[in-house]
Specification:
Elements: H1 2-12, E1 13-24, H2 26-33, H3 35-54, E2 60-64, E3 67-72, H4 75-92, E4 103-116, E5 121-123, H5 125-137, E6 143-146, H6 147-152, E7 160-168, E8 171-179
Parallel strand pairs: 4-6
Antiparallel strand pairs: 1-3, 1-4, 2-3, 4-5, 6-8, 7-8
Helix pairs in contact: 2-3, 3-4
Length: 182
């Protein structure tokens, strides 16, 4: 089994940064205004994000329900893109309802993952952790980095971070929140 795993990592392994972007307010908005209303807002948000993503140098990106997943060569590129996405959504002024604007929660991981074309994506610990940060832990306007992504940043001094800890799905997680605001 060890030899088979080694072969899989050699053939399908990559060291990449993963950015998981989740829409904030999906459940609340679909309950109060319906799915068609939310989908129209999500389409407008995707349009606001498109230019940022296309100019970001991402290896690839795709949408899955109300999430966007993008892959980068470095956590610095993922972080720069996350900040630009947050700014694009904030300045778009897309309103979910009378009191709440469209928002994003973003998780970033970095490390060894396996690519499985037949399963349409990358798999591994950092992929899972980036998803947990973006979808489960993060809230409106959050950009959260895994410990590995934070440790691999080249421009760490360009930003201010807060170290945080949380237990999610039985895993004790140390992660970092980027201190930023438009």
């Amino acid at each position: 089994m060890a030899e088979r795993e080694k072969e899989a990592w050699e053939k399908y392994g990559s060291e990449i940064a993963i950015m998981v972007v989740d829409s904030v307010g999906f459940s609340r908005t679909t309950k109060s205004h319906g799915i068609v209303h939310f989908l129209s807002k999500m389409a407008a948000a995707r349009e606001a994000m498109r230019g940022v993503l296309e100019g970001s140098g991402a290896k690839s990106y795709s949408y899955h329900a109300d999430n966007c997943i993008a892959y980068f060569s470095s956590p610095d590129k993922a972080l720069d893109t996350a900040l630009a996405l947050q700014q694009a959504i904030l300045t778009s002024g897309i309103a979910l309802n009378e009191e709440e604007l469209y928002g994003l929660s973003i998780g970033i991981g970095y490390g060894q993952v396996l690519y499985a074309e037949s399963m349409e994506g990358y798999f591994g610990d950092e992929m899972n952790l980036a998803s947990k940060l973006g979808e489960d832990i993060g809230g409106r306007d959050d950009i959260l980095l895994t410990q590995a992504a934070y440790a691999s940043l080249e421009e760490v001094d360009a930003y201010s971070f807060q170290e945080l800890r949380e237990s999610v799905s039985g895993v004790d997680l140390k992660y970092y929140s980027v201190e930023w605001r438009a």
